[in-house]
Specification:
about 350 residues, alpha+beta, single chain, five-stranded antiparallel sheet, elongated
Length: about 350
C-alpha cells in the first residue's frame, strides 16, 4: 500500500521530531549527570573532616584537616566556652542596642530587655542566636572586636594554631576561619567543661524569660549523642560539630562545607565506635617487677582497635635507672599487636 505524498511528508516530519526529542533527552541527561558530578567533586574537594576521642585526644580520622575554611555558627562553641569560663551565668544583663536586629538567626532580643546570661547561652547554642552572641560579647568585653581577641587567645591555648575569630557569631568575614582539626581541638576543650556539656546536650530548655528547642538533629539521630553545634552560611556551606558518648568513650566529630552533614557525621561517629574501644588502667592495679609489687602513679585511658589482643610487658630498672627515674622501679608497656600503645613508670607499693 502506497502512502500519499501528504502522508509521506507527515511521517518524515514525525521521524524528525522523534529524533530531535531523543537528542534533547540525551543532552538533558548528560547535563544533569555533569552538574551532579561537578557538585560531587566540589563537595569532595571542599569538605574537611576531623574525628577525635575526647579523653585521650587521639585523632581517629582526618580529611583536609588543615585547610582554612569559614565555620559559620560553629564559631559559637568558642563564644560559649569563653563566657562560661569567665562569667557568672546568673548575672542579668541589659540588652544593648547593638544586639537588636542582628543579621541572621535570632532569639529576638528587645532593646533594653533584661535577661540572664544563662538564658542567652542557651539561646546561643540551641537556637544559634546571633543577637545573643552580640549581647554576650559586649557584656564580656565591651565590644565584639575585643571579645574576638579573647576568643583567639583561648583558641591558641586549646592548641588551635590556624584559627582566627573576627566576631562571636560566625557571620561572614574574610579573616574569620578555622580548620577541621583546630575546631575539633576547640570542641574537645569545650566538652571537658560540664556546664558547656549540659547546655549543648539539652533538647528543650525553659528559662526565666525564654524557652528553646535545640536545632541539632544529631541529638535524636545517634545513640549517645550529646552535642554540639550546627552552622550554615552560603560561603561556609553546611557545618556541624557533633559528639556522642558510649561506655565512657567520647567521640567528637567535625565536618565543614558538607551538604549531607548529619548523615556524614553519623557515619563517622559510628565508624569510630566500631573501630575503637576505650581501655582504662586503674591506679590500684598491682603489677610485679621481679618480686616487687608495684603500680602506676595514676589511672590512665587509652584507645585500642576493637577485637585486637593486648600484651602487657613489665621491665625492672637497675639501681642507676631507678635514680634517673625518680624512684620508679620499672616500666609498664602495653602492645596492641606489634604496636606500643601505652607506657608508664611503675612504683613500689611497699613502704619502708
Amino acid at each position: 500500500m502506497q502512502l500519499s505524498t501528504r502522508q509521506a511528508n507527515s511521517c518524515r516530519i514525525l521521524r524528525i521530531i522523534s529524533k530531535g526529542t531523543l537528542i534533547l533527552c540525551l543532552l538533558a541527561t548528560f547535563c544533569a549527570i555533569s552538574v551532579s558530578q561537578r557538585k560531587f567533586e566540589a563537595h569532595a574537594d571542599g569538605a574537611a573532616e576531623c574525628v577525635a576521642e575526647l579523653t585521650t585526644g587521639k585523632l581517629l580520622h582526618e580529611k583536609n584537616e588543615e585547610t582554612k575554611l569559614p565555620m559559620a555558627s560553629t564559631t559559637k562553641i568558642m563564644t560559649a566556652l569563653v563566657i562560661i569560663e569567665d562569667c557568672n551565668l546568673d548575672d542579668v544583663i541589659t540588652v544593648p542596642d547593638e544586639a537588636v536586629g542582628v543579621e541572621g538567626s535570632s532569639i529576638y532580643l528587645r532593646k533594653g530587655e533584661k535577661i540572664p546570661v544563662r538564658d542567652l547561652l542557651y539561646g546561643l547554642m540551641l537556637r544559634s542566636g546571633n543577637d545573643s552572641a552580640t549581647a554576650l560579647a559586649i557584656y564580656h568585653s565591651g565590644s565584639e572586636g575585643k571579645f574576638a581577641e579573647c576568643m583567639n587567645k583561648r583558641a591558641e591555648k586549646a592548641g588551635a594554631k590556624s584559627t582566627n575569630f573576627k566576631n562571636p557569631s560566625g557571620l561572614p568575614d574574610a579573616q574569620h576561619y578555622t580548620t577541621a582539626r583546630d575546631l575539633c581541638l576547640i570542641a574537645c576543650e569545650a566538652m571537658k567543661n560540664q556546664t558547656f556539656r549540659q547546655i549543648v546536650s539539652t533538647k528543650n530548655y525553659t528559662g526565666e524569660f525564654r524557652s528553646y528547642v535545640n536545632k541539632n538533629k544529631m541529638l535524636s539521630m545517634v545513640e549517645g549523642a550529646n552535642g554540639i553545634k550546627t552552622g550554615y552560611t552560603l560561603k561556609a556551606g553546611r557545618c556541624l560539630v557533633s559528639s556522642a558518648e558510649r561506655n565512657g568513650m567520647d567521640v567528637v566529630c567535625v565536618v565543614l562545607n558538607c551538604p549531607d552533614m548529619y548523615e556524614r557525621s553519623a557515619s563517622l561517629i559510628e565508624d569510630a565506635f566500631d573501630r575503637y574501644t576505650l581501655c582504662k588502667i586503674d591506679e590500684n592495679k598491682v603489677f610485679m617487677c621481679d618480686i616487687v609489687p608495684c603500680k602506676i602513679d595514676k589511672s590512665y585511658s587509652f584507645l585500642v582497635e576493637t577485637d585486637k589482643d593486648l600484651r602487657y610487658e613489665v621491665s625492672s630498672y637497675n639501681s642507676d635507672e631507678r635514680k634517673e627515674n625518680s624512684g620508679a622501679v620499672g616500666n609498664l608497656s602495653i602492645y596492641c599487636g606489634n604496636d606500643l600503645i601505652f607506657s608508664a613508670k611503675l612504683y613500689s607499693i611497699i613502704t619502708k
